[in-house]
Amino acid sequence: FFSPGFQVAPETKAVMKWLRSIPFVLSASLHGGELVVTYPYDYSRHPMEEKMFSPTPDEKVFKMLAKAYADAHPVISDKSELRCGGNFVKRGGIINGAEWYSFTGGMADFNYLHTNCFEVTVEVGCEKFPLEEELFTIWHENKGALLNYMEMVHRGIKGIVSDKFGNPIKNARISVRGIQHDVTTGN
């Protein structure tokens, strides 16, 4: 997952441990500097290739999740190309992370590969480091999209895997035919 010599920061290790201890199913990482929603994989299957489409087995789900955010964001969904992020307009404001640019050690890839959590990365605004007076506007541009994204947690199959006596089975492997990515049950 990490390239040789890659140092994992203590706070990243703490989040990784937390993610493994609680069965999260959906998350988003908020960044600045662009207007786009990216989804895994962020690291190309061919590390020497830049901007190479690198889908997960759950590509359709990730596209649906990314679109749920992008379509509800008033600026990302704006069709104007005369703004930052204009190069993502024809893509509907979303892109596979590795197709935009490949990097190793991203949390979205970690979550997908090592937990049950599906994560997208949201570039919330044009400025990498927005000024304090811009934060209120950025919050209002993203509030509805965040709520719409959070509602996506109710999509899909939900339930309890239990034995013949009705006792929940911890760490039961759940497979979906045609998708080569299993998930496991929580506590």
TrEMBL record:
<dbReference type="GO" id="GO:0004181">
    <property type="term" value="F:metallocarboxypeptidase activity"/>
</dbReference>
<dbReference type="InterPro" id="IPR050753">
    <property type="entry name" value="Peptidase_M14_domain"/>
</dbReference>
<dbReference type="GO" id="GO:0006518">
    <property type="term" value="P:peptide metabolic process"/>
</dbReference>
<protein>
    <submittedName>
        <fullName>CBPZ Carboxypeptidase</fullName>
    </submittedName>
</protein>
<keyword id="KW-0121">Carboxypeptidase</keyword>
<keyword id="KW-0378">Hydrolase</keyword>
<feature type="active site" description="Proton donor/acceptor">
    <location>
        <position position="123"/>
    </location>
</feature>
<keyword id="KW-0862">Zinc</keyword>
<keyword id="KW-0479">Metal-binding</keyword>
<comment type="similarity">
    <text>Belongs to the peptidase M14 family.</text>
</comment>
<dbReference type="InterPro" id="IPR057247">
    <property type="entry name" value="CARBOXYPEPT_ZN_2"/>
</dbReference>
<dbReference type="InterPro" id="IPR000834">
    <property type="entry name" value="Peptidase_M14"/>
</dbReference>
<keyword id="KW-0482">Metalloprotease</keyword>
<dbReference type="InterPro" id="IPR008969">
    <property type="entry name" value="CarboxyPept-like_regulatory"/>
</dbReference>
<dbReference type="GO" id="GO:0005615">
    <property type="term" value="C:extracellular space"/>
</dbReference>
<dbReference type="GO" id="GO:0016485">
    <property type="term" value="P:protein processing"/>
</dbReference>
<feature type="domain" description="Peptidase M14">
    <location>
        <begin position="1"/>
        <end position="153"/>
    </location>
</feature>
<dbReference type="Pfam" id="PF00246">
    <property type="entry name" value="Peptidase_M14"/>
</dbReference>
<keyword id="KW-0645">Protease</keyword>
<keyword id="KW-0325">Glycoprotein</keyword>
<dbReference type="GO" id="GO:0008270">
    <property type="term" value="F:zinc ion binding"/>
</dbReference>
